[in-house]
Amino acid sequence: MPDEEVYEFKSGIKPMWCPGCGDYAVLNAVHKALTNLKLEPWRVAIISGIGCSSNLPHFLTAFGVHGIHGRVMPIATGLKLANPELTVIGTGGDGDGYGIGVGHFIHAMRRNLDITYIVMDNQIYGLTTGQASPTSLKEMKTKSTPEGVIENPVNPIALALASGATYISRGFSGDPKGLAELIEAGIKHKGFSLVDVFSPCVTYNKYNTYDYFRPKVYSLQKENHDTKDMGAAWKKALEWGEKIPLGIFYVAEGVPTYEDLEPAYRQGMPLKQKLGITDPRELIEEAM
Question: Taking the model in full, what pTM does it have?
Fold first, then answer.
């Protein structure tokens, strides 16, 4: 029996992020995860919004949609519901996902759609040259907050726990091997998967750098964290300071997805259903 074919996911387009940008490691991790899973490019769709990180679909040979700001989840949701056989992956930044797109993010999680969302979280707006983002730390001085941020930052892990995501993890561009493993596990998981990634912006964020994170981050899995214990996950989600956890915070297996419960699928997936009604009286009778 011949070996299973492994497809090359790298496109001919070269990324042009700033040298040292954490997004390079995320791109390589996504490529490694897709290759390890032996997925077929025509069965994978990668959706992005707006921002430096949202260029990612251009650099892979899967189907891709470079959408508009904050609208990763609506596009990803539509694709997944039209064709649930697709592996659908959302990619973007903290401004795109946790700012303008946060409402869509919450609803996708509570529905437990079978989608993987990779957020390159650099605590700054990089594309628009250095304004404070939803995850910028309090008192951080940026172009838009010269006297320091006065708001509390969004906690993506806690938000995901509260909203019903069934796979919640955090990676770091400084640990590409571990990041690839988190992404691979997220894609394999049936349900909504969040992979929040510390992906340093080397140009506009001089605070949350690789050197800032390296002495602070540690692996939850090396400390035998129980990923099935939501209470333990909450404690770790709120941990920030001298120690910052990486890895898988929480996993809930066997939770029905939105696709499992959607009545429209009783007649098969929408992609394979016939369009229109041959007899208009059927529509009238159905509406009566």
Answer: 0.92
